[in-house]
Amino acid sequence: MRSEQIGGCVLYNGDCLEVMAGLEAVGHIISDPPYEESLHASKNSLRGPVRADSGPDLKGLDFASINSIRADVVAAAERVTTGWFIAFCTIEGVAYWAEAINASAMKYKRGCLWVKPDATPQLNGQGPGQGAECFVTAWNGSGHARWNAGGKRGVYTHLTNQRDRDGRHPTEKPIPLMMELLKDFTNPGETILDPFMGSGTTGVACARMGRKFIGVELDPKYFDVACERIRKAYDQGDMFVPTVAKPSKPASLFANDNTKDTQIAA
Question: What are the pLDDT digits (tens) for 24-33?
Answer without folding.
Answer: 999 999 999 9
